[in-house]
Amino acid sequence: MNMRMEWRTNWMSDRALVRDVALVCLADGIVGVSFGATAVAGGLPWWVPVVMSLLVFAGGSQFAAVGVVLAGGSPVAAVAAGAVLNTRLFPYGLAVSDVTSIDGGRARRWAARLAGAQLTTDESVAFALRHTDPARRRAAFWTCGAALFTVWNIAVPLGVLAGSAIRNTAAFGLDATFPAVLLALALPTLTEGRTRVAAFSGAGAAVALTPLLPAGLPVLAALGGLAALWRPKRRPRDAGDTEVAGAIPVRSNS
Amino acid sequence: MMPLLAVVVLAAITYTMRIAGPLLADRVTVPVAAQRLFTSAAAVLLVALAATSALTSGHGFAGWARPAGVAAAGLLAVRRAPFPVVVLVAASVTALLRLAGVELSRTGPWFLWDSSRYAPELHT
Q1: N or C: which end of chain B has fewer CB within 10 A?
Q2: Cβ contacts (< 8 Å) between B60 and chain A: which residues?
Q3: Nearest CA in chain A to B64
Q4: Domain boundaries defined on chain A
Q5: Which of B14, B86, B117 minimises the CB distance to A180?
Q6: ipTM tops 0.85
Q7: To 5 degrees, how large is the angle CA B70–CA A52–CA A217?
Q8: What does pTM read for this prediction?
Q9: Distance between CA atoms of A115 and A244, rounded to whole angstroms?
């Protein structure tokens, strides 16, 4: 590839990066508005979603924790649900550790590492993993991470304002946006057959247990669905099994 | 209620998960099986939370309007509709059904046997 072509490709992929990041930001902005509105409409004080978005900055777990609390669950159950969701950030951090280690003085290196850690999300990691070139990876990760952090922390207070302004949120169907958002967040992780079985059996158990258990526990009990993942080695019996046996893990640790 | 302490603890746990990767990257590799378990655990929790928050309110059934809206949105999401459309459809289908009075049918589906303990906030 000659210089001009290379320049052109870089320029094009920069534009593509900005466009893709903008689309992700738009989607997450809507999630953020929905989160802020749901939290205050459910009766939480305004600072809970706002502080959470700054400090936790992980949409799924924020929704999970607030959802448990709004259902009447204890803060311990809320934290547990949020924390379990965020365990996936550990392998994410391993996968993109190269992009948060930058050259420079000791202080600069640590600043980048600490800030980069907070910007580690499903989206920023996905953007980084799309590239193999270190500079591209870095650009993708930091652009997406910083843009998302900004958009998220603007969208959530906007949602708080909207949620406080609208008196009868049920009439506008706002309570339906919360499960819809969760479903949309979960869909990309449901490509694998066994995960689907685990998720749906767990969800079934959670719904069935809701009338019986204290709020917050049914969702945690759903983790029992993970038992569906455990299967002793045996010969493939039906189409589902063979499909799973051939499945490739979503994220390889390259 | 959600005390500030709960928010701070969740934030601390979350940040620990985030920083652990870069700090341990030279020394640790997570087995593929464990990575898949993390991903699956996240999927299980999200779907369970989606299901319970779509179908239940308190300890009882949430009424038909909300799950109908969520189902419509879920169908669109599966068909790869843009995210804003998914969210808008969830809200508007639910709102329209409520406007039509669908919410008032008090019988829940069979798997929510305790439909007598009904969501009070939607029916006052």
Answers
A1: C
A2: 211
A3: A176
A4: 3-189, 191-254
A5: B86
A6: no
A7: 55
A8: 0.74
A9: 38
